[in-house]
Prior knowledge:
This protein is mostly helical. The chain has two domains: 12-57 and 210-242, Arc Repressor Mutant, subunit A (Orthogonal Bundle); 67-161, no CATH class. It contains 14 helices and two strands, in the order αααααααααββααααα. A two-stranded antiparallel sheet has the order 1-2. Strand 1 (166-169) and strand 2 (176-179) form a beta hairpin. Helix 4 (67-80) runs antiparallel to helix 8. The termini are far apart. It binds a DNA duplex through helix 3 and helix 6. It is found in: Nucleus.
Amino acid sequence: MVRQPYLKKGTWSRDExxxxxxxxxxYGIWNWNEMPKHAGLQRSGKSSRLRWMNYLRPNxxxxxxxxxxxxxxxxxxxxxxxxxxxxxxxxxQRTDNDIKNYWxxxxxxxxxxxxxxxxxxxxxxxxxxxxxxxxxxxxxxxLMLTNILLDSPVSTIDDLLEPPAYSCFSPSGSNLVAxxxxxxxxxxxxxxxxxxxxxxxxxxxxxxGLDWEAVLPNSELSHSHHQQNYVPLDDFWFNxxx
DNA sequence: AATAAGGCCAACCGCATATGT
DNA sequence: GACATATGCGGTTGGCCTTAT
Length: 242
């Protein structure tokens, strides 16, 4: 019987983050199950992937959802339900986990209370709208509703699930690269796609001399609680020369 | 000052789906 | 087509922090 190597769980340390970033920057993403071993991590591929996707990958915005983002989440949740990845695809800098957490801890309560408050007041308006929807097929009506809510035409429900052309900044911070990727490709591939358009081999040098103390999420800077505006890697990805 | 309660969020778990053989 | 493996997704949990008492 093959003994499973010890796999660490729980919060990621700064050192682990550093190892994972350094490895991905150098070798890219190729196999989540194998990568952690080669990166010197005692973590499962699943845990590593999650850490990367939700926290370490470039171009992630954290905390402080704007009013517009809140409205978008509320609208899309109404239309799509708890399809967080589909919702996140419409908010490219947000992770599905972040959106899910934000919804569960704040927006859901707000929506429920607003619905309670507005139920009595909007009965007549709602009746008008619902009769409009009822007169068409289910698909048509939901699309109509979608168009109204999103202020942009959606011809099919697939259009809604299809994210806008994915765009990202190259690690060098010099070029904005638009990548027209299929949602099913996943963000892992998007990342590689973005980097491939750059001089990918330059990446290893880029991280040398990087001030990890300032960059990594577990640094003292980011540890001061509720420093939600601080985006751990933005400085690095957007302007590595800072 | 102590501690209980609640909020928040990172991370885990289990299941579904995609991909490779 | 069947099976194995990898990846993606959403629900849930555990622990830290803040606030109230």
